[in-house]
Write a structure and sequence with these properties.
The protein has about 350 residues and is mostly helical. The protein contains 15 helices and 3 strands. The chain is globular.
Length: about 350
């Protein structure tokens, strides 16, 4: 259950606004072949076959369907992804086309009252809008992270101790950004992800073992806490870097989305309170991790005291969604909270 009266993030509401019609079939080949995956297993001294990864995928997909049916519709673990790799969707031409399609549902303000049907708005207007509107890129990023983060928290925190596969095998599966394949919707937004199961390269595993020894004892087992940090560093950081390189939206706004989403879903996972509080401190109140790398989630949200009865001011940064046509201001928008505080101070 959500803590402190939190509601589901905007993504769940957005899903009712843009109804899926059909998913585009992507023909991008897998970034790694079966032979490479087997070679990695041999290098690690493991005897598990590729079929074991198929079993892990089936087990996780079934568990996700039970725990989070909505996300199970948009996220699958697999050994044969067919979506767009991060190197493909982040090519400027590909990303710009996705944003151009996305812009059709959120035309520039002032154009929505035109007698011209929205679908007939000149492409040059939409193209300019998709390039320059921080709000449009921000909302696209919310779809991107909104369908990615909750399933991965399930994978990192629950999968190692809930699947029949060996703990060692699951913890050695690579969770870097290049193993996640985006499935685009006809509207240009993200409709889901494919998580390609493959073992991490030998050097990364060795480094992880060294780093694991430096992690202080916590309520989470060190490997799971370590994997959570690695996921931030090897997946979320590169994804934010790609997005900020493609859009006018600052990294701070994307990390605000991520902080809000991670905090919300950790609350939905019904973790023991001591574990929930520890993770909040680790992820949002810690400037750097044990490997001395900066923590990009630090101060990304307002952490409320345990006595708070609601989370209206948990966001530090406005997502800018209200700037788009056919949209509205979020119920927990920090701009509204600040305006209320200002009026109270002037009263």
């Amino acid at each position: 259950m959500a803590r402190q009266g939190e509601s589901a993030p905007a993504l769940v509401k957005l899903s009712s606004e843009t109804k899926p019609s059909r998913t585009k079939h992507c023909k991008t080949k897998c970034s790694q072949s079966l032979g490479i995956a087997i070679a990695k297993q041999t290098a690690l001294g493991l005897t598990k076959s590729q079929m074991d990864f198929t079993q892990v995928a089936q087990e996780f997909n079934q568990r996700l369907a039970l725990r989070a049916p909505f996300y199970a519709q948009h996220f699958v673990a697999t050994t044969k992804p067919q979506g767009l790799s991060i190197d493909t969707w982040s090519q400027p031409a590909v990303y710009q086309q996705l944003l151009l399609d996305f812009a059709k549902a959120y035309p520039p303000l002032g154009k929505s009252t035109s007698p011209i049907p929205l679908e007939n708005i000149p492409e040059q207007i939409l193209l300019s809008h998709s390039r320059n509107s921080k709000a449009l890129h921000s909302l696209w990023g919310q779809w991107y992270f909104g369908l990615l983060v909750p399933p991965m928290l399930e994978w990192i925190i629950n999968a190692p101790h809930s699947l029949a596969s060996t703990l060692e095998q699951i913890e050695q599966i690579d969770i870097a950004s290049e193993h996640f394949y985006l499935k685009p919707h006809d509207s240009g937004r993200v409709t889901g992800f494919e998580f390609q199961l493959t073992l991490a390269p030998t050097p990364q595993v060795k480094t992880d073992i060294v780093k694991a020894a430096r992690v202080k004892t916590t309520v989470l087992t060190p490997p799971r806490e370590l994997q959570l940090i690695q996921w931030i560093q090897s997946h979320l950081v590169p994804s934010v870097e790609r997005l900020t390189g493609l859009s006018p939206t600052p990294a701070k706004l994307y990390w605000s989305h991520l902080g809000y989403l991670i905090h919300w879903y950790l609350g939905e996972m019904a973790l023991p309170n001591i574990e929930f509080e520890h993770l909040k401190a680790l992820l949002f109140n810690t400037k750097s991790f044990e490997d001395d790398e900066d923590n990009p989630l630090y101060n990304s949200i307002n952490l409320l005291p345990d006595t708070a009865t609601h989370a209206d001011n948990i966001r530090r940064v406005c997502c800018l969604r209200y700037q788009l046509a056919n949209s509205h201001r979020c119920g927990d928008c920090p701009l509204a909270t600040r305006a209320q505080a200002k009026r109270a101070a002037q009263a």
